[in-house]
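Running this now, will post back.
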Amino acid sequence: MKKVNYQEFYVFSEIVRSGTITAAAQKLGMAKSAVSLQLNRLEQRLQVKLLERSARRLALTREGEQLLPQVESFLAEGLRLVEQAAGQKSTPSGMVRISATPDMGTLVMKQLLPVLRANYPDIHLVARLSIEREDLQDPAFDLAIRIGKNHDENLVVEPLGSFKRILVASPDFAEKYQLREVKQLQSCPCLGHSAASHEQSWTLFNGNKQQTITVNAHFSTLHFSTLMELAQQGLGICNMPDCLAREGVEKGLLVQVLPQWACAPVDVYLAYRFGSHKIHRVKAVIDTIKKEIPGIFHQAP
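Update: finished.
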């Protein structure tokens, strides 16, 4: 079997991050020739070309692009094992990677980051904000903020609370249309949360009453931040999480339309692999999230 050389993978990853062999050598405190040698040995070991070299830049080959995520996962797992073997440091330090959706991730980071910076200045957060759910069994990620139901029994799930989607629009828009009933939504401009269709079904509740209505949105996207900006400009009604709309309502940029009606609660939770809380830096972030974030949502535990 071919031996795996951890340093070769680390050097390859640093070259990609730094952009050039010279910059990687400076970051690693190695001679440029030594960095080149490590890269050459890795390519020879794998029998593939990972980087295209030119006088001014480096570019990943197709094989390099395919290998890089796996290398980053391998390095992250190696770091986790080293930390466990060496024991926990008295002061948490190092990088913690978080996965979240763009809008909810931004909301959480605004609350989380100042507290972490004050209490754990040696912890560095890296957030991948994406609509797609990352696989938390991949050690490249430490934890995630997720919305909706959890279908992975191999993860630890900590409830953070819930939110309701409410109808909001600009004050001028609300004044113009004067909505009194849910069915009137069919005859006024709406902004939809979708990347697949302009027709969307909104199910709203008012106590024990329930109404489902199909709206024909003249614009749709999966990014609530964009929908909120358009709603503030008076371009339509948006069915938005109340936790995201709160700031705009407080500033008078948005008003709630049909305020007695709202969608069913949606759960928000923290998810991470079993055993992750034993890693000092990850535990510090988990504990801070559990303390600081539930206040953003309803029904916080």
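The longest helix spans residues 62-86. More later if anyone needs it.
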